[in-house]
Amino acid sequence: MPSVCHTSPIEKIIQQGHRIQNDSLIPSKRTKLAHTELTAHYATEDSHVEKHFLHNGSNFDGIDNVRYQNQPSPLTFITPNNTVDSSDWVPQFSSMKIDDSLEFSSEYKRLYSNYESQQRLNSSRQHLPFKNCMIRKTSCTYPPQKTLRQQRQGNRDNPTDAFQFDAEFQVLEREIQKERYEPITRRDEKWFDQDQSELQRIATDIVKCCTPPPSSASSSSTLSSSVESKLSESKFIQLMRNISSGDVTLKKNADGNSASELFSSNNGELVGNRHIFVKDEIHKDILD
Amino acid sequence: MLRYHMQGFSGYGVQYSPFFDNRLAVAAGSNFGLVGNGKLFILEIDRSGRIVEVNSFLTQDCLFDLAWNESHENQVLVAQGDGTLRLFDTTFKEFPIAIFKEHEREVFSCNWNLVNRQNFLSSSWDGSIKIWSPLRKQSLMTLTPRPLEITKMVDPLNAIILKKKSFTGISKNRNCVYQAQFSPHDQNLVLSCSGNSYASLFDIRLPSGKNQNNFLVHSGLEALTCDFNKYRPYVVATGGVDNAIRIWDIRMLNKNESATIKRTVPGQLHNSSCINEIPNAHGLAIRKVTWSPHHSNILMSASYDMTCRIWRDLSNDGAKETYKTNSTDATKGSIFNFTQHSEFVFGADWSLWGKPGYVASTAWDGNLFVWNGLG
Predict the structure, then answer these.
(1) Cross-link (Glycyl cysteine thioester (Cys-Gly) (interchain with G-Cter in ubiquitin)) at which positions (chain A)?
(2) Which percentage of chain A shows pLDDT scores above 90?
């Protein structure tokens, strides 16, 4: 059998590791101070590496995993031994990345990363809330400054709103005026309807006409003294004075449209004659 | 003097019966006629000289005037405040025998035709005069005084003088026809007076538009009363708010110029048909004038100054014209002044019977007085 057919897999692995070393950026300078630590590290790494390789040795996919996980380590240094086989092997192992089964999953790492980002955003938001609002409009709880400014501008310039405001003000003003003057009106005035007011006006005119001014001289008056004395004692003139002052007025019928009696507006008593209803009938067969 | 008091009612009109020498009818209203019932009183003077009530009729509204039926001794017509006229029979109780309803407002006067005795008329605040027959419910004819522009017709000088006398000026009740009368000489002549200060003379034989002649009688103030002289067919008297009584000769009314102002001579009255004037006949407005049935030159007036006066028309001596006026006389021709009433006097009528000079008057004090003004 040719010798090529007798090469062991370990040798092949060693060869691949050598090539990686040449291509990587690992420094080749030796460090004396860390020798002891490096030794311990190598011992630990050796046991892990062996277990790993032995565990995945029968699977060719394991080789790809090793290649994928091979990452440079900051603690990796070149050994002082310059033996071709051992020196090449040890650094290669030290530079490999170990896939820890207890490590957090990538999904967890992603979620945690988002969480940290959120925390940073919250922290920055506390310091610059407006800036944040300007950047992320969708997350704002209130409209941006520009929008607020526009709303304020609209309130000033919108004629509909101004009109409504004025209308409301006028309504309020009327209510105040009504409340202010209504008690006085109720105290000082008696509520008369049109007919009652008309009668009061006529009575006032009659009193003025039939009563001479007190300051007028007897010679200038057109009425004789006897007529004046009669007028002063006249029951009709006295009734007119009472109607003029509002003490007496028309008493409306039940229908509210006509009046048939006079009454005192002070105490409600009847003044003058009581009205008696008369049927609108005739004696028949008289003219025939 | 005889007296009768209508308790609770004010007298508005009184008239002697044309058939019985001792019977009178009085139209009255409660509460001075302002509001409330009316009442028609049928009174008689008994042998001992007392006035007694023989019948009465209570009405739904106030009564403003009345007229005896000249062809039936027991029937009396009344003018009512609700716009109706009612015919009562004094031998019946409570209700009328006929109701005539066409006027739209208060009926202020009614008058029976003395010539044909078959018709009567009414005048109303609605501005119309209606002629009726007692046998028909509907009126025979409606007369309306032609409306005139008062401000253009009023004599400016008289208006100024009247204003100085504290008059209220132009009447506000222009359309109101306060009184209308048939002529006692011609059954076709009707005289009326209105709140627009005009008197209107109607000849009902003429077609509408040509049947009336209007003349200004009280210088723009309300004309409240008018009456035909019983002996001189062409003489009428009017009274109004200006406290004056004026006497007119309707023969001098010019049909074309009766409503215009003529001032050919300074101081002359603005209407040449006025033949006499009694200025300031009363202290207040004159509500009633009525000529004597016994003398051609004597008339009576009733006024708001609570008095009744008897006057002699000095423009006529009973036989011929004297061309004098009462304004030139010291007493203004006053014969008698009756002062017993204590309220406005609205109704007055001469007695046709007994010694000439007996009159009856009624006022808002509810009293009816029968007295003699000619001694």
Answers:
(1) 5
(2) 3
Q: Which residues contact B247 (CB under 8 A, 6 or more apart)?
A: B235, B236, B237, B274, B275, B276, B277, B313, B315
Phi and psi dihedrals of A22, rounded to 5?
-70, -35
Q: B93, B85 in Cβ contact below 8 A?
A: no
Contacts of B53 (CB under 8 A, 6+ apart): B4, B41, B42, B43
B89: distance to nearest CA of chain A, Å?
9
| A152 lies in some domain | no
Q: How far is B201 from chain A (nearest CA, A)?
A: 31
DSSP 8-state code for residue A273: P
Give the closest of A273, A278, A287 to B31, CB-based: A273
Question: How far from each other are the two terminal CA atoms of chain A, in whole angstroms?
Answer: 170
Q: Give residue B201's region: left, alpha or beta (phi > 0; psi -120 to 50).
A: beta
**Nearest-by-Cβ selection for B97 from A233, A250, A286:** A286
Distance CA A83, CA B370 (A): 175
- Supply the Cα-derived Rg of chain B in whole angstroms: 19
pLDDT per position as a tens digit, B124-134? 989 999 999 99
Taking the CA atoms of A217, A221, A227 and A231 in sequence, report the sign of the dihedral they define.
negative
Given an 8 Å threshold on Cβ–Cβ distance, is B36 in contact with A282?
no
- Domain range for residue A200? 190-211+225-287
Any domain includes A280: yes
Written out in words, the top-level CATH class of the domain with range B1-107+341-354+361-374 is mainly beta
* Measured distance CA(B105)–CA(B128) in Å, rounded: 10
Concatenated DSSP letters for A171-195? HHHHHHHHHHHHHHHHHH-----HH
Q: Name which of B242, B305, B308, B338 to mutate to probe chain A: the one with the most chain A Cβ atoms within 10 A of its Cβ.
A: B305
Residue A234 in any domain: the answer is: yes
Cα–Cα dist B120/B110, whole Å: 7
Secondary structure (H, E, C), B123-159? EECCCCEEEECCCCCCCCEEECCCCCCHHHHCCHHHH
CB contact under 8 A, B31 and A283: no
**Residue B52 forms contact with A (CB below 8 Å):** no
Q: Total domain count for chain A? A: 1
pLDDT in tens, A57-72: 444 334 434 433 434 4
In one-letter notation, the amino acid at residue B365 is D
Residues in A closer than 8 angstroms to B34, CB to CB, are: 199, 262
Helix (H, G, I), strand (E, B) or coil at A43: helix
Tokens of B76: 């009396």
Q: Which pLDDT band, with edges at 50, 70 and 90, does A222 fall under?
A: low
Residue A118 resides in a domain:
no
CB-based contact, B165 to chain A, within 8 Å: yes
A236 with B364: Cβ contact below 8 A: yes
